[in-house]
Amino acid sequence: MKLSRRSFLGTSAALSAASIAGSFAGGAWAASDTVAIASLHDLSGALDIYGVPSNLCMKVAVEEINAAGGLLGKKVELKVYDGQSDINKYPQYAQKAALNDRVVMVQGALSGAAREATRPVLRKYKIPFIYGSFYEGGLCEKNTFCVNTGGNQQVVPLLEWSFKNLGKKLYYIASDYNAPRNFGIWNHVMAKREGGQVLADDYYPLDVTDFTAAIAKIQAAKPDVVHSCLVGGPAMSFYRQWAAAGMLKKIPIISIVFAAGNEHEVLAPEETDGVIVAYNYFQELDTPKNKEFLAKVEAVAGKNHPYINGEVFGGYSGVMLWAEAVKRAGSFEREAVLAALESSIRWEGPAGVMTTDGPTHNTTQDVHIIKVENRVWSLIEKKEQIPPDTYGGKCNVFTNPNQTDFLMPQI
Amino acid sequence: MSGPPILATRGLVKRFGGVAAVDGVDLVVNAGEIRCLIGPNGAGKSTLFKCLTHQHQPTSGHVLFEGRDLQGLATHRIARLGIAIKNQIPSIYANLDVRENIRLAGLRRGLEKRQLDRVVELTLDEIGFNERLASQPAATLSHAHRQWCELGMLLASSPRIALLDEPTAGMTREEMLKTVDIIKRLNASATVIVVEHDLEFIARLAQRVTVLHRGKVLVEDTMDKIEANEIVRDIYLGRKKEATHAER
Amino acid sequence: MDSFVILCFAVVNSVALLALISLGLAVIFGMMRVINFAHGEFIMLGGYATVIANHCGVNLWLSMLVVAPMFVALIGAVAERLIVRRLYGHLVTTMLATWGLSLFLIGAVTAIFGNTTMGVSAPLGNIPIGAYSIGAYQLFLIGITALLVVSSLLALHWTKYGLIARAAMQNSEMAATLGINCDRVYAVTFIVGAAISGLAGALLAPISGVLPHMGAAYVARAFVTVISGGGALITGFLSAATILGPVEALLSYFATPVVGQASLLLLAVIILRLLPTGVSSLWTGGR
Amino acid sequence: MMRQVKHALFPVALVLFAALGPFVLEPYDLVNLSAFSAMAIAALGLAFVWGTLGILNLGHSVFFGLGAYAYAIAVSNLGDSTLAVLIGIAMPVAFSLVLGYFLFFSRLGDVYLGVITLCVTLIFYSFMTSTADPSFHIGPVPLGGFNGITAVPSLNMPGDPQAFLSTEATFSICLLSLAGAYILLSFLRSSDAGRIMTAIRESELRSELLGYDIRFYKLVGFAVSAAIAGLGGALYTAVMGYVSPNVFDLPQASQFVLWVIAGGLGAFVGPVVASFGFQLLSSQLGANQVFNTELIFGATIILFVMLVPQGLQPMLLGLSSLKFPNRFGILRRKEKPA
């Protein structure tokens, strides 16, 4: 094979690829009367419980936009990919969306691992990435915009409330992976700030189903409140075994992930009643905007549509915020859309007012502290317009435009 | 004869649980011999062979090869010293063709490719396999041909000692005679110890015969003397002869 | 004192759970040398059968103890007939085919019921022990697991079917010459194994999340327990569960759960290295 | 002679594809096929150790995963990708020698050996998922727990870490590596050592009685398969730009086994084709939602195993030479119950 050094080298080739990609993108939507965005979700496999409703929310948003005449005179087309709960699929499909479908925006990749695998690919091909799941916070990257809550927006209000109302001694039990460990640091931040005490940080592998010893440990520690960040199907065993041991009525459980996997439906009411969580959105939210939204969901997915929780709501708000930005920019170009998102896009949706935050590339929004009773959530307290954490000024894409690594909260 | 015998055992014992299959065998075999081991079923012949090659670890006692104690050596190490064995149950590479089987046996000798090829063809000739048989998978061979294939493998590996456990079992007389020929060729360069029941076979081959009984050496002598030995007749030959009569 | 009792309970509980999730697999592997990768999905189907029967108004105990095992036995019969029977003697091929079956069952359940199903909660209330309290249902679970194991042992050693099954397992050719229909024995064994897995799933339904993918959490663990148990059918895996369970439970309690889980696997590796045909080779003298 | 020509056909096709692919394929397909090739390389390692040497290694993914992690850590620390790929090969080899010593120097039955390796890969999975804490790092690179290591640099010019190779060049390298692995293993298989390995698969006892140290050959074969898997893992990480603990998990381990069986045990071309086929299928299923992906994929596996039990390559060869009596192949016979 005789490839000259020049053609073999990436620096030049990457440049050309980027320019090609750019011209593709431009060409693709400039000429046709549709513009494509991609939905990258687990529609099968163990994580479809998050992926399917989030994808549905994106669909609802796209239909709403198209029903109102589309964007800049073009219909929005939703390219759907099934990540199959296999992280290897994410970079593949992100690439396909960028190179083959020439989409102008990608949303999804909800799990942390999927997000981390997808982010670099989209950065490389210069396709804006809207991240719709709540997460640990600290992601301040030029090419990514986070529209759901970051760590401080959930943990801070929930723990403020719980230290005040439930007691100062907190026991943290969580699944053993990145986000729960990061949330765990927020616990300590809050304990320090509010004079509370974190009795233990227990991390369990994702496939543990026997929590007998875990429950014994909690009983021995006698906390005022248990903060659970257990995620996934196997971890549902914890709540059942907790209730079976008669603990549900003795020590209250707070959580920022409970219900994201429809735990409150899979589990019986006598196992979940009284669990308290904090989300930007919940389906029972009693506002006119939410009634409208739910009607649209029903129109798309029928009356028995999956429960829309705070996790998957990002599928809707992400597309809507992006659409607002496109309107303001008057263009689908990456630079223009990102610039518009950075210029504080204000959008009033089912969960109240959401405003994109320029420097952090995160979103200021309301957070609701809610409680479940007989599989139905009711509002306890609403915390209005919580801004994303700035991580001491380090979370700033204006001053650190090349920042891609995560920022960690400091205790 | 100067120097130590090529193979000797001293007080060799092999127990399985409480049963001693080999119970203190002292055996001396000189270089160049063809030695026959006989004995009724359960006398410990096959077990003795397996102890010699460490397919079974002896419970106690020693195996000496040219005066060297084999204790602690792995089976393949013993094979490398030049002790080759054909077990009672044929063990060949069933899915490989005969030529490949023989080649694999010769390969260990570290010959040049051309020399090895010559050894393989020579061996095929010695066991009387034509081209068609040589290129057949070993699994498709008849019973006798399988035995010969395995003997061919022993030939090709050029051993110092060949241990043969019932090489003619299940053969017709003609096949047995051919086997005798092959073993004679083997004996040209190797000492042969063979376990057999067939008297004619033994008479044609063996200079000395060792009789094993209940894991011990009962007697060791020439075939004529053994045949005349009353005790041996009682425990083994007599019964065997009756049996052969009865079969006819 | 009460903490000691609780710790003992946790240990016994982990042994019982390990035994419960492995028994069905042990029967199938021990008798037929078939590694059933769809074992986890049989458990899942047992859970689903219980939950759905219960929602249709069937009494919970009836759904758990009768409906679920029967339903999964039916699925097992179909799977045996269509897949496993055609692949006997081919260990790896069977393993792959049952892996395919496991994905297929997950897909089918998701397609039919979606990924969210309302569960049933644990009956029987709880029992206080000093500063602690434990679920009475978990005690019931330990009891019924012991009952299951004992009755399997008895069935295997004291009934005519057990004798036939053991004969077929020891030497199928010889059993065939004795007039035993080995195909039929294998079929019955597979169905019984499936029914036990289904029962395990049913019993677990009130204390675990009944979801299409719930099987994945059990299969590797059951697999490791059964293989490190070795050749002896019931006693083998039982002893493996008795060794592995406490190690995991205690290390999870005193160290971290990750250490506990890793130690379970590491211990299985060491057991197999020292006793290449499993724990039961200690008293059966190898296979 | 004909045989040699036939053997050369496949690598020649791969080399041609490596040369022409960049001119005819879309960039997306190039990236995708690069990743598929990396996986296929790893599958070849298993095809060799299982098909030639008879070692049923259910945890082959451990070597793939070690190669993937070794590359990710090395390239992020050193910058130069050539050295990192070599480290990605060396790490699994070193581990395979330790593990192999542990396994082959005791008399383990094949299922039990398979289960031990499977346990080992699951231990790695458990360990790697629990490294989310930033205190787990090698040099400046955090192991990253469940999320893995991201933004791993792709291949660059030897000695010039800033000169990243283009998608086209990476594609060519991956396919050439696949051809290289194929040629290397084919040569090894037909060499004297390879014949002895085949002999060991056929009969361990006979080989031992002929004076071959079966433990040594198994160890060597195991290490070779680990090296090939490591190369696959390193290239995969280089192409995808990230590595996560999933490289060690049960589905990954099962996939390698599936590809080798589907391609034909004892064959090399078959497993490569099967690996491309199944990866393409799974990728297509995700891109076009026809029905539940798992249902279709599961049904495909069942049908494949039932209808083509002896594997793709032996079946096609059998069809072409119309040897119907022998259709169920010699290789099927090898697989015996535990």
UniProtKB/TrEMBL annotation, chain B:
Coiled coil: none annotated. SMART domains: AAA. Keywords: ATP-binding, Nucleotide-binding, Transport. Residues 7-239 form the ABC transporter domain. Pfam families: ABC_tran. The keyword Nucleotide-binding applies. The keyword Glycoprotein does not apply. PROSITE patterns: ABC_TRANSPORTER_2 (PS50893). It comes from the Bacteria. InterPro entries: AAA+_ATPase (IPR003593), ABC_AA/LPS_Transport (IPR051120), ABC_transporter-like_ATP-bd (IPR003439), P-loop_NTPase (IPR027417). GO terms for molecular function: ATP binding. Involved in beta-(1-->2)glucan export. Transmembrane domains (TMD) form a pore in the inner membrane and the ATP-binding domain (NBD) is responsible for energy generation. PANTHER family: CONSERVED COMPONENT OF ABC TRANSPORTER FOR NATURAL AMINO ACIDS-RELATED. This is ABC transporter ATP-binding protein.
Automatic annotation (TrEMBL), chain C:
It is found in: Cell membrane. It comes from the Bacteria. The keyword Nucleus does not apply. Its main location: membrane. The chain crosses the membrane at residues 6-29, 36-54, 60-79, 91-114, 134-156, 185-207, 219-238, 250-275. It is a multi-pass membrane protein. Pfam families: BPD_transp_2. Keywords: Amino-acid transport, Cell membrane, Membrane, Transmembrane, Transmembrane helix, Transport. Belongs to the binding-protein-dependent transport system permease family. LivHM subfamily. This is Branched-chain amino acid ABC transporter permease. It comes from Bradyrhizobium iriomotense. The lineage of its organism: Bacteria, Pseudomonadati, Pseudomonadota, Alphaproteobacteria, Hyphomicrobiales.
Automatic annotation (TrEMBL), chain D:
The keyword Transmembrane helix applies. InterPro entries: ABC_transp_permease, LivM-like. It is found in: Cell membrane. It is a multi-pass membrane protein. The chain crosses the membrane at residues 35-55, 62-79, 85-104, 111-128, 169-188, 216-236, 256-278, 290-312. Its main location: membrane. Pfam families: BPD_transp_2. Keywords: Cell membrane, Membrane, Transmembrane, Transmembrane helix. It comes from the Bacteria. This is ABC transporter permease. The lineage of its organism: Bacteria, Pseudomonadati, Pseudomonadota, Alphaproteobacteria, Hyphomicrobiales.
